[in-house]
Each structure stands twice: as C-alpha cells, then as structure tokens.
Recover the amino acids of this structure.
C-alpha cells in the first residue's frame, strides 16, 4: 500500500549568523550516564582525583551548555551539545493549516563564508527571526542570532509530498525526504478503517464495476483529503486493502466472486459441486471470515435470478445429473484405533499419497509416524501446506527423512477442502478427518472418475503433481 | 623568458591567493547599518591585505630555501646505562562482564530473532542463533543490557536462569603472558581496571588470567634523581639511556619515591640511539639555524638530497642543542661524517598566520568585534569607555607601601575594566610578571578563561611556578602547551600530554581525558609559537568529524582574555593567531627592549614582487654609479628604466638634501660630445650601442645588457687609460688587481647591477634603520643610503613593508603602523590619547638591579621629557661582601688585540679569570640575599664570541657537552647571546664586547639596553674601552665606555 498526499507550501530559505548547539556523540555521554545531579558529578570527578579548580570549571561548562540545570543533569543520551558560532542556512516551511509539522526545521547547516553578497542583501524581518528562533529539535538548538538578523535567501512555493510506503511516513520537498510521524488511518479514511483486518471498509456498489479490485481486495484511487488536522491535501492511494463494508456488501461481493468461479468451470455443475465451490471461495478470500455466509442453495439460485446464465448452469446440472448428488462410496473403512491401519484395508500398501491441508505441525507428523509404522512403511507422498511453526522444522525434517516421506507444499487455496488418501496410485479414499483424529474416522472409497465429478480440483491437482 | 613575461606570470599566480572582500553576513552582526557593514568589509580587507600579501611572499621565500642544514658532532661518554624499574607497572583493562543464560531445552532457540526479555527493565535484546556461543546448554551473550539484581529473564517467552561472571584480580595472583608466569607484586584497583606491578622489563600487551585474555598497557616510568647508597647518582639523560662518568656502586638504585631501579651497562653498539649536538655556523649573527631544528613540529632529520638517510628525532634537549635520533635496531644506520644534517623548511607557522588573517577578514565572529574595530574609521565613540572596577582583595599586590605597587594595581584595574585592549609597559625588573600574576588571579576569580602567551618557555614557566603559591581560592587550573622537553620540570605535570596521561590513569577514557583536559582548564599557556600546538589552533585546518576543514568557517573565541608577555617582540601577524581565540587582549612588554625578529629573506622576496623590476634597476643603477662606486659610466637601459631614472631624479632634485645634485646624467637622446664627456652617467638606449659607439667618449666604464660586451671598446679604453686615471675605480682592491683594467671590473660592476641586488641591498639596510630608530641622532650611512634606495613614490611598497612588518603589536597599537589610509584607523594611527590613557599603564619602579646597574639605562633610555621611567625601588637589597670591583657596574679594559675570525680570545681569558675569582667567593658565601645559590651569566652580542666563551666554560666546569647552562656545584653559569637572554636575569653578568674595529649592530640601543639590565648584583663589561670611547657609530656606547661601564 502506498499513499501520497500533496499540497503546496511556502518554503523559506534563510540564513543567519549566530550560535547553535549541535547534539553529537561525545565521551561525556558515557561519563555522565549514571550521574543525575551536580553533587553526584562532583563526587564522581573527585573520585577520579580531579583537582578542585578543574571540577569547578567542568561544572561551569556543563551549566553553560545547559546540560546541568538547577543542579540536575539533563538527559543527554541522544547527544551532547557542542556550541558553534557561524553562518547557518535554514529551510522552514509555512502552511495555512495546522499540519503537525508546521514550521518544522527542514535542515540546518553551517555555511562557509562567501564574499559574493553585498551589504544590500542583508534585509531583516524580525518575524522570520521568531520563526527560526523558536525552533529546535534533537539535532540542534539555536542559542543566539546575531543582531536578530536573518536574511531571507528565497521564498518559494514548493510541493510538499507526504508519503506512506510500507507503513512508514516520510515527507519530501525538492527531492529530499525526511522522516515524519505517522498519520492515523482513522483520520485519513474518515473513520472507514477496519483495524482488525487492516483494510478500508468499502461498499460493493462503489467498486462493483472493478473486477480487479474485487478480486485483489485492493483499490487504487485519487481523492482530495480535508480534515481539521491536516487541511487540504491531494491524495493518491495505491493498493489500499479493502473489505466489504456491511453484511449485504459482503454477500453481493461474495456472489460476484462465486459467479466468477462458476464461470471458470464453464459447464453445468451439481449442487454438491457448488457447495464445494462455495467453501473453496470462502477459503480463498479470508476477508469474508468477518461475515456470516452460510450455504443456502435455494437462496443462491434466487440471488442469481432466473435470467442469469449462472442460474441455468446450476439448474441444468441438476436436470442432467439427477442422481449425481447421490454419488456415494461403494465401500467404507472405519478406523477406531491406530492399529486398525494394519489390517482393515486388505491391500499391500506400497505407496501412499495423502492430500490434506493440515499436515504441517510436529504433532501431525508424530501421528503420521505411527500410521506409517502400522502400514508397514510404504513410500509416502504428502501434498499439504507449509510448516506452521518454523521451530518444528528440524524435527519434522528428521521424521520425513527417517520414513522417506516426500512432501509437496501448496498454498491452502490450491488444495481441496476434503482429505484424500491414495493407495498404490489407484485406490482412492476420501477421509473423514484430518490426522489429528485419524484413529477414529471413516475412509470412503471412490474411483477417480467418481471423484472427478464432485471434486475436480483434487483430481487436477493429483494429475498435475503426481503424474 | 623576458622580464615582462616573468612579471605577468608572477602576477597571475599570486592573484588567486589574494584576500577578497569578507562575507557581509558575518559583518552584519557588528552593525545595523548596511552602509557601515559595507565600509567595515572594505576597510578590513584593505588593512589586512598587506599583511596577507607579505606572508604570501615570505612563504615563497621559505620554500625557496628548501631545507635548513646544520653541522653536528656525536656525543660520547664513559658509560652508557639502561636504567629500568625492577617492577613494571601495567594498567589492566577490566574485561566485560560475562553473561551466560542457561537454556535447558535448546529447542526453544530459533535460528533468527530470538527474543531475550529483561522483565525489570522492560528491555528486549534480539539475537540470531548463529551469533552466539553455546556451551553445555549455556548461551554466552555479548549483550548491551545486563540483568539487574534478581531480574526475571525470558527467552522466547520462557523464563530462563542466568549467570553474571566478573573477573577479580588480587595481589600474588599468577598471570601468564607470552608463555611466562608472573606474580602480581602490588595491585591498585581503579574504576575500569587495575594497576598491577610485575617483575619484568617486557612491554607486555596482554596477559592470561583465569582462562581470560586481558589487555594490558605498560606505564612509562620517570624519575628526577636516583640515589645510590645514600648518595646521589650523577648521570646525564640521553633519551632512554643514561650517560655517566662512574658506574653506580649498588645494583639497585632508588628514586625519590623509593621505587627501585636496576641498571645494565650498555655496550656501545650500532643499535644504540644516536646522540648528536648541533653546531651552528657562528660566522654571522643571523638567527641560529639550529633553532629551526628545535621547533615543535620538527620530527625527523635527514642527510643528502634524496632524503634516503632519515632519522626520527626521539628527544630534543634545547638547552644543550642535543638531538637524540632513534636508531632502527633492525637495520642500524649511521650518520655520514662531515655531511650536514637537514630538515625540510616548514612554513606551517607562517601559514597559520595567513590563515588567521584570512579567517578574520572572511568571517569574523561577533566576539572578534574589537579586532575588527582596529580597522574601522576612528571617532571618539569607537572605543568604549572602561567600566569602573573596584578590587576588594589583592592576592599579591597587598602591600601598597611597597614601591611601585600602586602602579601595578592601577594596571590590574584597567585591564579588568577594559572592553578590548590593555597595555602594560615597564622596564626590566619592574614587576610585569607579578602584575600578570595578580591579574590572572583576579580574572579567574571572576570566572574568566585566559590564554597566556610569552616569547620564551622560561617566562611562561615562571608564571606557572609562582601562581599556585597565591591561588588560595583554588581557582587556577592551568594547562601548559608545548613539548614536554621544553617545559620546566617543576610544572611538567601541567603539560598537556602529561595531564591527559594522568587523567587516563585516574580512570577516564582516553577520549574523555583529551576532552576534559581542555574543558577543565581556565589558564592555557604557551610560547607565542608553541601556542599553535593548542588543539583548537592546531586542528584548525583539518578538524575532526569533517567539520572546519577550511579557513572559511569562522573560528569562535574560546578565551575571555589573552595575555601576551613580551609583546614588544611579537608582530601583528604573530599576535593574530592566538588573538583570534580571545575577546580581550592584554599586551605586556617594553619597547625599549628587543623588537620582533624578521627574516631578511622574507623582506627581499616581497620587495622583488611588489616593486617593479624597472624601478629596482633604475634605483640600483643610480645608487651604485653615482653614490656607492663613483666612477664615470655608460649604462645601457630600456626605455622604461630610463623613464624611472628620470622620475627618480626629478623627485630628488626637488629636495634640498639631494646627494645627486652635483651629478650629471645624460639621457639616450644626448649627442653633444662635450656634454657626454662631462657626464657622470651616460644612459644609452637598449640595442643601440653599435650605432652610437663611435660618438661615445672612451673615458667611461661601459656596462651593456646581456652579453653584448664590446671588447674593441675596452681595448680602446685601455689604450687611452693610464693607471692613475683608473684609480677612480675605487671599489676594487688595488693590491689584488692584476692589471687594473676595465676588463677586470666589467664582471664586478655587471653583477653589482643585477636586479635582485636592489632588494637585498635595501632589505638589510631597512632592518638596520629600524633597529636604530630609537637612537638620539639616527642619521648616518644606513639612514642615508636607505633613503636613496627607496622608491620615490608616496605610499611606496618599501614604506609599507617597513610599517607593517617590523614593529611589534605593542608598538603599532599605540602609535599605529604608519600606513596611510583614507580614514584614520586605530591600526594605522594608534589609539587616541584619551582611549590610550584608559588602557595603558607604565611601571616605573625596578626591583632587580643595584642602582649602579640601572643608572645608564635610566639616564639614556628611559628618561623621556625629563620623566624617569626606571626608578629604583627603595627595597632593593643587593648587599654583598665581594670587593673585587669598586662599583656595581664596571668596564674591564682589554686592550691586547688577540683577535682572529671575528673572535676575541683575550676577552675570554679575562671573563674566565673573573669567573674563577667570583666562584672562589661563592665557596665561602654560597647564597645570595634571597638565600638562593648564585647565578652567573656570560653574555655577548656575537655568536662567534659565544663559541670561544663556551670552550672556556666547558673547560672551567669540566662539562664538555654543555651549550648554555653550566654549573659549578650549586652555582649556575649561563652563556647566551644578548638576544636570547631577554626576559632572564642573573646575579652577576659578564658582557664580552668583542668588537675592536667597528661596532656593527651594537648601535641598536634596544639590544644594548637588554644587555645592561640583566644583572642584579654586578655587571662587568669586558672590552676594548678606548675603541668604544672613540668610535662614532653610537653615542650611547661612547658614553658607556667613557663612564667606565656605568
């Protein structure tokens, strides 16, 4: 996400001759780090056998530098002042609105003497002096300006650009960038920011024409911003994460995406297939987690409307394959404890492919280890998501290598919602539970063609990865 | 290349190094009025440019020299010892606390970004597994944060146990280094480590204790004297070695603190450091070349032209002109006998002066306003009136009945009251140093920061030695700038490096020690040149941290006051270097003593650049042909040269005292033979000789340009001439002339007329004229010939250089530098009388000399308009029982003229004889009235005479390697030329006059005054009395001789 906010500002470049404290690294910082008062300082210096006269001078010096004030040492951890007299240039910018950095010093640097200028160049304006003199930051402090004179070198209108990139705010003038404090999104997006999901809440109707925004959940747009705090700013917002604003926005958005999924299949689909698609879509776009989106076939048909092609794709599917929804397993294996794996399948299992999203924690692998032992050590391939906790990696790797387990890692949405075990490349089981409860679940046997009808995604995945 | 081209080239190269108008922004802080700011920028540049330009050429003159070279001899002795402490002291750096965390289940460690949380401090340290050491379930952390007492620590959110291990070191612990065992003999605990004593001479850098490697640093050791069996062991220190005539009786020697030392006799070998003594060429009285070798910046010497044979200087002993050269023990090398040693010419100090001028011109800071005022148009309000100051308590000047105290107090008040300058003048012994001491104490009481500078180390050390006695409020924190060798022993602890080392030993980090030494001091002292080593001045050109690399960045002031002693010996440009660091300036001195030393070559170089070649040539031709070597001449000149000659003579012809008024010069258009015959000088046009030679009389000496010499003309002339006619060529020594013919003279006169000779001819006269300016009747050969050699224009370059470079700051601030300027400014005219009165005080009462001794200077040098500025204090007590002389100021006549090579051996005999007599007296009367051993000084004006006096003193004292400080038992015998002895004193002074034929530079009354005012009890002049009574160069010397030296 990137935000650029622009406005024109007046930039004053001015020059003054005077004394400035710079806050720098200094050995004093270490010396004084555990000292809080003048008495402690004197004690410390006496401990180091410093003569009385020298101690007096050090105390006086620190008082002059305002490091020691009323007997208390100021915090100097970030820099010790070092006075320097000279000619300085300073750029400050002025704004009509109450930007938090109004009159903030942009830069201060000591200038060499130059002989080009003439006496006539020296014009004074005490208001500018005031502007300058009040300013200080953690890098410098202006102590004095000779004769209250600052020379305005230039007054220009410049574009101030506030940039948010990668969650860091900077401002830029004349190609030079400076750090700045963050601007809260709540201010920037007028209360429409969802902090939980880090997204801008947006009505479906606003972006319903923008397919790429709807699918990517990111929008790019330009808008003028006006708030009491920042004034008027021209904004350019890029890749701003968005989330449906209300429940009905979510519903419309979801249906839009579901339609797109159906369209991709480009064929008649059954009710069960639709439910699978519904679930997959929900998982693919986690931003819908915030909303209640239960599967209701009749309602979906209603939403699609009879005149839409999606309605007919669904309705025809039911008409063409009236029994399709009743495709059921020809045989079922019930597993009640881990030893059941030794004998309930009645087959010599040489190879096992498991497609399951959740084989990504050490506990899954420990269970898998037991399963493998009971199946008499077949060659195993698992297609699953990446390891959840990197701490587990070492141990998981150890188990994988011990049992010759091959792992194919996919993104969650690339994997089917259901779990499948494939024995010796041609015996397919749909499994009721994930590994966590594998000792107490059912294994339903299907042919590959049967599965093709209700979980095309699985078959495609298998063909792609295992062929 | 023609002269014109040369000129053009010089002009272009020097153009970029000119002073430009300063930065108005900086000047704008001096005034609200733009017009005044503009005027200030202009007048400052105008006033400073001549100084800047002069330095430009002075630097070039130095660079032309390339190197300084000096003769030398090896110093040898009976025995050379290496003396080392029995136990060496080392500083042990305290190692970091070892921080171990116990991790029972190593699985909780992640590869990256492990999180160690310090619960009590609410701090988190992150680390990667690869960055830590793991041993037996312990992880070792190099953490910035350390746990506090009983603090709970969590590693990746799991509570963990931990250990902190600190090293402890105790007496009698055994440590290892370089595979050897050492026992800790003694230990001192410091904040950041320990000092331990080990029995070794090795320079160990690390040691192992308790399986830990520790960094150690050996301390340097030092002792002032050594005791051998209850008697003092006599040695001479030469770098790390000690030379002695007899070996110690005991194996172990002890220093004043009881620390034990052992000694080993060194075999003389090629790897020993080389100890040499420099021998100056004493054939003239210019600045001794050896002095350059002892300047602070000189660190190496070399032989030959390719600098292949180079030696680092390990140590310098200025008093004895001894250099100790570091021997490369891997590849020992030797100096080539009979070949001079050299150093590269160093223009650093001149460049610093130039930098200061540039800085003040370009970017003056507000606190330098009063320096800028020197160049501002004078009016009655320019200089602020002094404030009222009342001093309630006097540290030293507490007895107002003591003669002179009231004057001293008056000055202290004026100096505190002034807003800018204060000037203290006073004759020798009038308590200037005491006044400075009181002023310092008063200023430090007010919380001011002071920079004290003087021309000699002794003068500085004098102040520092005395000040602590009176510092009852403990306000003085002094810092001495300068090499440790040049700083007196009693205040060596104040020397900057020594002080830093002490702070480091007391537990400060090196960086902090360097900083705190500067921040804690309120009295920084150094010689006028040595102060350039003060870090803020030294580092001005290239500053650390990238800042202030250029002189265009301003130099802010550090000090409230700068006190400069002997400012009568300091030029404005020398003054400016330290003066830039202060807000107010106290000038102390005596313009009746010696003036600043200026290198003649710098003046010559300047003249060559600023005076057009034609002018130089024209003046030179007239001076040599019509004044210096009066013969009839024919000289070939360019058109411009002829114009210059005309212009010059026109101006002189309008003057009454024109020495050329009877001289006839004919110009190149003259054809009348009779007129030509009667001319003293016939000018002929360049390149026209062949056309006119037949009309030109053969009676004149011909000088043609380049190699166009016309032999036929000389033959004819020779034929016509007779010996008696040629006798007119009076510059040639007839006895050495072979045949007294014009051929012989041709080269002589041609060389004489080379352009560069004009600059040399006028430069040395200028210095002499300046030195003689205070004579009652300074109108002799020098003044007359100087006038004749000067260009005739008003505001000519010669006058400018005379005005600007020769006078001291003390002189020019009072009477101005005499430059003419559109406006009257303080630098050109001096302070107005009223302003000066508020700032100036003269001390009139002297406390040093017996009245017989002060009499001559009082009557002849310090009485102005009937007022005596050298009165004797009533408290002077110079009683003694030495009855050899009837008066306290005597002249011992030495008539026997045993003189060769500009030396007077007879006078040496007399001085030694008188010395012996006095030494006999000191045997029964070892102490003077101040209960101190007697001091004797032998002075002479001439280096050659000093050489043979030295030989006499070496023999007398049996100290064959000493140069200027000898001793016989407790009596110190000093040998100096008068110029080097300014600011010093002795109980009895012998002055060897040497001269018997011409007085040379003895006509400088400043020099004479210095010589005459050094003695406290007795002054003995040894010299040819009748010669001085009869010479006509100096009325003062004549009078001194006639009065029998009193």
């Amino acid at each position: 996400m990137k935000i650029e906010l622009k406005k024109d500002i007046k930039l004053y470049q001015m020059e003054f001759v005077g004394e400035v404290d710079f806050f720098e690294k200094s050995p004093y910082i270490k010396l004084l780090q555990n000292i809080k008062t003048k008495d402690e300082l004197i004690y410390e210096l006496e401990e180091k056998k410093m003569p009385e006269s020298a101690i007096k001078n050090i105390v006086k010096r620190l008082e002059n530098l305002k490091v020691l004030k009323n007997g208390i040492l100021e915090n100097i951890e970030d820099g010790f002042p070092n006075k320097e007299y000279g000619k300085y240039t300073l750029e400050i910018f002025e704004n009509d609105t109450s930007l938090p950095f109004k009159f903030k010093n942009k830069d201060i640097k000591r200038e060499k003497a130059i002989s080009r200028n003439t006496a006539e160049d020296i014009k004074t304006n005490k208001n500018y002096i005031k502007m300058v003199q009040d300013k200080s930051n953690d890098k410098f402090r202006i102590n004095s300006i000779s004769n209250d004179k600052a020379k305005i070198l230039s007054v220009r209108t410049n574009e101030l650009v506030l940039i948010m990139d990668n969650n860091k705010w900077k401002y830029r003038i004349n190609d030079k960038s400076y750090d700045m404090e963050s601007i809260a999104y709540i201010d920037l997006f007028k209360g429409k920011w969802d902090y939980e999901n880090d997204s801008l809440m947006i009505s479906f109707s606003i972006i319903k024409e923008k397919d790429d925004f709807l699918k990517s959940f990111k929008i790019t747009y330009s808008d003028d911003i006006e708030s009491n705090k920042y004034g008027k700013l021209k904004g350019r917002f890029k890749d701003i994460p968005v989330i449906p604003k209300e429940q009905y926005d979510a519903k419309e958005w979801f249906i839009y995406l579901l339609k797109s999924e159906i369209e991709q299949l480009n064929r008649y689909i059954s009710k069960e297939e639709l439910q699978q698609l519904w679930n997959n879509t929900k998982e693919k776009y986690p931003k819908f987690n915030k909303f209640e989106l239960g599967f209701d076939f009749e309602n979906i048909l209603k939403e699609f409307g009879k005149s839409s092609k999606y309605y007919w794709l669904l309705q025809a599917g039911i008409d063409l394959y009236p029994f399709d929804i009743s495709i059921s397993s020809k045989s079922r294996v019930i597993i009640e404890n881990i030893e059941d794996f030794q004998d309930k399948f009645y087959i010599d299992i040489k190879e096992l492919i498991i497609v399951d999203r959740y084989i990504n924690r050490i506990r899954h692998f420990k269970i898998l280890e037991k399963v493998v032992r009971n199946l008499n050590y077949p060659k195993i391939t698992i297609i699953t998501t990446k390891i959840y906790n990197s701490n587990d990696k070492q141990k998981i790797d150890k188990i994988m290598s011990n049992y010759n387990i091959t792992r194919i890692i996919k993104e969650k949405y690339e994997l089917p919602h259901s779990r499948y075990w494939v024995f010796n490349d041609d015996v397919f089981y749909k499994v009721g539970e994930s590994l966590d409860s594998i000792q107490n679940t059912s294994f339903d046997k299907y042919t590959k063609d049967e599965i093709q009808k209700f979980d095309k995604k699985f078959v495609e995945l298998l063909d792609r990865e295992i062929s | 290349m023609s002269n014109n081209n040369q000129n053009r080239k010089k002009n272009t190269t020097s153009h970029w190094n000119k002073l430009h108008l300063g930065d108005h922004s900086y000047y704008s802080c001096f005034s609200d009025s733009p017009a005044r700011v503009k005027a200030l920028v202009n007048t400052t540049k105008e006033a400073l440019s001549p100084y800047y330009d002069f330095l430009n050429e002075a630097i070039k003159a130095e660079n032309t020299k390339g190197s300084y070279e000096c003769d030398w001899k090896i110093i040898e002795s009976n025995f050379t010892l290496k003396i080392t402490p029995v136990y060496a002291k080392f500083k042990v750096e305290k190692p970091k606390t070892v921080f171990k965390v116990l991790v029972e289940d190593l699985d909780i460690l992640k590869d990256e970004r492990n999180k160690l949380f310090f619960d009590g401090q609410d701090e988190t340290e992150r680390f990667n597994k690869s960055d830590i050491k793991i041993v037996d379930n312990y992880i070792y952390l190099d953490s910035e944060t350390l746990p506090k007492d009983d603090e709970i620590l969590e590693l990746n959110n799991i509570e963990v146990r931990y250990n902190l291990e600190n090293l402890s070191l105790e007496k009698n612990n055994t440590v290892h280094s370089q595979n050897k065992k050492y026992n800790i003999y003694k230990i001192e605990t410091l904040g950041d480590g320990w000092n331990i004593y080990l029995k070794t001479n090795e320079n160990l850098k690390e040691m192992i204790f308790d399986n830990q490697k520790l960094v150690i640093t050996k301390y340097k050791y030092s002792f002032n004297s050594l005791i051998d069996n209850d008697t003092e062991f006599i040695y001479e220190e030469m770098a790390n070695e000690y030379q002695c005539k007899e070996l110690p009786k005991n194996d172990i020697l002890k220093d004043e603190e009881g620390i034990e030392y052992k000694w080993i006799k060194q075999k003389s070998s090629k790897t020993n450091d080389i100890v040499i003594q420099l021998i100056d060429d004493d054939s003239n009285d210019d600045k001794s070349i050896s002095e350059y070798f002892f300047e602070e910046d000189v660190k190496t010497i070399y032989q030959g032209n390719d600098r292949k044979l180079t030696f680092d200087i390990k140590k310098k002993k200025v008093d004895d002109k001894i250099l100790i050269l570091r021997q490369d023990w891997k590849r020992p090398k030797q100096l080539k006998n009979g070949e001079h040693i050299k150093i590269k010419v160093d223009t650093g100090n001149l460049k610093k002066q130039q930098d200061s001028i540039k800085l003040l011109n370009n970017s003056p800071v507000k606190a330098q306003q009063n320096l800028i005022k020197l160049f501002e148009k004078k009016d009655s309000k320019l200089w602020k009136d002094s404030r009222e100051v009342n001093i309630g308590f006097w540290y030293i000047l507490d007895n107002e009945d003591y003669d002179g105290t009231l004057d001293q107090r008056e000055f202290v008040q004026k100096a505190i009251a002034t807003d800018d300058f204060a000037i203290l003048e006073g004759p020798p012994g009038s308590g200037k140093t005491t006044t400075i001491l009181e002023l310092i104490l008063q200023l430090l009481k007010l919380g001011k920061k002071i920079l004290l500078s003087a021309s000699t180390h002794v003068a500085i050390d004098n102040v520092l030695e005395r000040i602590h006695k009176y510092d009852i409020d403990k306000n003085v924190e002094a810092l001495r700038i300068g090499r440790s060798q040049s700083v007196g022993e009693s205040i060596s602890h104040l020397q900057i490096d020594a002080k830093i080392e002490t702070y480091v030993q007391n537990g400060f980090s090196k960086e902090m020690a360097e900083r705190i030494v500067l921040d804690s001091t309120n009295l920084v002292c150094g010689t006028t040149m040595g102060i350039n080593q003060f870090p803020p001045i030294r580092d001005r050109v290239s500053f650390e941290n990238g800042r202030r690399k250029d002189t265009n960045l301003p130099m802010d002031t550090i000090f409230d006051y700068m006190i400069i002693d002997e400012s009568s010996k300091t030029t404005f440009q020398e003054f400016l270097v330290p003066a830039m660091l202060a807000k107010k300036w106290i000038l102390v001195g005596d313009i009746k003593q010696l003036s600043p030393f200026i290198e003649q070559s710098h003046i010559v170089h300047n003249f060559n650049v600023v005076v057009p070649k034609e002018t130089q040539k024209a003046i030179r031709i007239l001076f040599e042909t019509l004044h210096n070597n009066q013969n009839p001449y024919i000289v070939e000149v360019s058109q411009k040269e002829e114009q210059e000659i005309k212009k010059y003579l026109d101006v002189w012809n309008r003057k009454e005292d024109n020495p050329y008024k009877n001289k006839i010069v004919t110009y190149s258009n003259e054809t009348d033979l009779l007129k030509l015959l009667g001319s003293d000088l016939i000018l002929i046009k360049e390149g026209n000789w062949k056309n006119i030679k037949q009309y030109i009389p053969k009676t004149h000496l011909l000088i043609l340009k380049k190699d166009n010499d016309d032999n036929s003309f000389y033959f004819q002339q020779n034929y016509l001439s007779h010996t008696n006619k040629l006798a007119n060529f009076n510059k040639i020594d007839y006895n050495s002339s072979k045949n007294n013919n014009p051929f012989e003279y041709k080269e002589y006169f041609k060389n004489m007329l080379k352009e560069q000779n004009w600059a040399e001819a006028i430069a040395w006269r200028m210095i002499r004229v300046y030195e003689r300016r205070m004579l009652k009747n300074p109108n002799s050969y020098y003044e007359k010939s100087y006038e004749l050699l000067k260009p005739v224009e008003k505001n000519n370059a010669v006058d400018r250089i005379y005005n600007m470079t020769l006078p001291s700051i003390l002189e020019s601030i009072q009477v101005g530098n005499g430059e003419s300027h559109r406006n009257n400014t303080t630098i050109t005219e001096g302070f107005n009388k009223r302003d000066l009165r508020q700032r100036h005080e003269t001390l009139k009462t002297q406390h040093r000399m017996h009245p017989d001794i002060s009499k001559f200077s009082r009557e002849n040098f310090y009485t102005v308009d009937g007022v005596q500025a050298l009165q004797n204090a009533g408290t002077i007590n110079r009683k003694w029982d030495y009855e050899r002389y009837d008066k306290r100021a005597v002249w011992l006549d030495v008539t026997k003229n045993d003189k060769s090579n500009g030396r007077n051996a007879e006078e040496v005999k007399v001085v030694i004889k008188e010395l012996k007599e006095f030494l006999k007296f000191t045997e029964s009367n070892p102490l003077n009235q101040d209960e101190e051993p007697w001091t004797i000084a032998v002075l002479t004006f001439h280096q050659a005479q000093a050489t043979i006096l030295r030989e006499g003193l070496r023999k007398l004292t049996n100290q064959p390697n000493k140069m200027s400080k000898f001793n016989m038992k407790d009596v110190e015998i000093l040998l100096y030329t008068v110029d080097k002895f300014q600011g010093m004193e002795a109980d009895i002074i012998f002055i060897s006059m040497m001269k018997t034929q011409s007085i040379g530079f003895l006509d400088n009354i400043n020099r004479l005054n210095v010589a005459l005012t050094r003695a406290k009890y007795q002054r003995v002049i040894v010299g040819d009395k009748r010669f001085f009574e009869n010479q006509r160069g100096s009325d003062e010397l004549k009078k001194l001789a006639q009065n029998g030296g009193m």
The radius of gyration of chain B is 35 Å. Residues 1-15, 718-732 of chain B have pLDDT under 50 and may be disordered.
